[in-house]
Design goal:
Elements (H helix, E strand, L loop, with lengths): L8 H13 L14 H9 L9 H8 L2 H6 L2 H17 L14 E6 L6 E6 L9 E7 H4 L4 H15 L9 H13 L15 H4 L9 E4 L7 E4 L26 E4 L6
Parallel strand pairs: 1-3
Antiparallel strand pairs: 2-3, 4-5, 4-6
Organism: Leucobacter luti
Protein name: SprT-like family protein
Pfam family, one: SprT-like
């Protein structure tokens, strides 16, 4: 005796069992077993964006005095993680106009800028293109936390904007969107940073690695992040200006008060 469409009953039964085993037919409870298509959609769904930004929130909530009293190594870690958090929770950073996803780059010793967005195109292999946020350790070491938060959003706005667009209208709109999104709607969109009162009053003597001292007057001190290797410096403060240069040649040593 044949089953449906002339197929023997045993084979029909086996086909029905196989459909249930594969999740293509009815389950024992009468519900649908789902399909390969639905399973594939669940497995291939992109991970949910990171919406919690504890380190960035710390930049917004910490007062300057407490921040500057924290060792630089700890502050540096907070800044780096805050940058990574903002990049991860910015959907525009995954597919920016530049064509390469925005990522965190590295710390630099440059004194020229607080931070910058580095976009590099490799004509030979586009997979080697770079769209990075790089941070200046010497500059950010002396900046209060909200300035750093502003700087991070400033550079992320560059990273999700067109290459070489500078501080264009499009960049300003993106920067404003990020400020509003991350609780800084009261901050003005600015192209350059102006030192705040807290930063001007910051204890520089605990933020620099090396201390320079004038042999003519021990009270004349200066501070640097790196030892001068290619040039010498002379003291020009007070009555030192009238002394021979050999008597006011600044000598540098490790800063005993450095809190890094």
């Amino acid at each position: 005796m044949s089953g449906r469409f002339g197929v023997p009953p045993v084979i029909v039964s086996m086909i029905g069992s196989r459909r249930q085993d594969l999740g293509l037919g009815k389950t024992a409870g009468g519900g649908s077993g789902g399909s390969f298509a639905s399973h594939s959609r669940e497995a291939g769904a992109p991970p949910a964006p990171v919406l919690i930004t504890p380190n960035f929130s710390r930049l917004l909530d910490t007062d300057p005095e407490s921040w500057f009293a924290t060792p630089w190594s700890q502050r540096k870690e907070v800044i780096e993680q805050a940058t990574i958090e903002i990049i991860r929770c910015t959907p525009e950073a995954r597919h920016p106009p530049f064509g390469t996803a925005l990522t965190f780059g590295r710390w630099m010793q440059s004194n020229t800028s607080l931070a910058w967005n580095k976009q590099v195109t490799c004509r030979v292999d586009p997979s080697l293109n770079e769209n990075l946020i790089e941070l200046s350790a010497p500059q950010l070491r002396t900046k209060e936390p909200r300035t750093i938060a502003d700087t991070i959003l400033h550079e992320v706005a560059h990273g999700i904007d067109d290459k070489h667009s500078g501080h264009s209208k499009g960049w300003r709109e993106k920067f404003r969107t990020l400020l509003n999104r991350h609780g800084m709607s009261d901050v003005e969109v600015r192209m350059n940073h102006q030192s705040t009162a807290a930063e001007l009053a910051a204890p520089v003597h605990v933020m620099r690695r090396y201390r320079g001292t004038c042999p003519n007057d021990q009270s004349h001190t200066s501070y640097r992040d790196g030892m001068p290797r290619t040039r010498s410096y002379i003291c020009t403060r007070g009555d030192c200006r009238s002394k021979p240069q050999s008597q006011r040649l600044i000598t540098y040593d490790r800063n005993p008060d450095f809190n890094g």
